[in-house]
Specification:
Helices cover about 25% and strands about 35% of the residues. By secondary structure, the chain is α+β, with helices and mostly antiparallel strands. It has a 5-stranded antiparallel β-sheet with strand order 1-2-3-6-7. A 3-stranded antiparallel β-sheet has the order 4-5-8. The longest helix has 16 residues. The protein is globular and about 45 Å long.
């Protein structure tokens, strides 16, 4: 496993629409392992393949104490609305208020190509949507109702 370099805005890979994965092999497994290690190293909640320079439909997200890997993820169900504060490993130091669905179901494939489905609500739902957006070249700043001022960010960190 290896920690990969996280691409930062305005790297063009972050704006690309990604390709479907059809090969479930050792290089894919290494990429998934590297993505998980990279996400944990920087204390992220999720990571999409474009963020490490790979234009493929692959995400990893934290779910409780574990990590969920989803290949070719697709939101199949959504409901409710939640507005929350988001940041992004590819846009350090910037945060914004972003509307998202409160609950989502995502289907996709695991590292072996087997079907999987995950239900997320509140924070997990937000992370899933944020990472899936990356696969379409969409960044949270594109959806933000407003970006937070440095003073607002400072006040938020005092509350934590």
């Amino acid at each position: 496993m290896a920690i990969r370099n996280i691409r930062k805005q305005p790297d063009p890979v972050l704006r690309e629409k990604t390709a479907f994965v059809s090969r479930f092999n050792a290089p894919l497994h290494r990429l998934l392992d590297d993505m998980a290690e990279t996400m944990l190293d920087v204390e992220g909640a999720g990571l999409a393949a474009p963020q490490v320079g790979i234009s493929k439909k692959i995400i990893v997200v934290r779910d409780g104490d574990g990590i969920v890997e989803i290949i070719n993820p697709e939101i199949t169900y959504s409901e409710g609305e939640s507005i929350g504060i988001e940041g992004c490993l590819s846009i350090p130091g910037i945060y914004g208020e972003v509307p998202r669905f409160a609950r989502v179901t995502v289907k996709g494939l695991d590292r072996s190509g087997r079907k999987l489905e995950i239900f997320g609500e509140e924070f997990l739902a937000r992370v899933l949507q944020h990472e899936i957006d990356h696969l379409q070249g969409i960044l949270f700043i594109d959806k933000a109702l407003r970006l937070l001022t440095p003073e607002e960010i400072k006040n938020l960190s005092k509350k934590s």
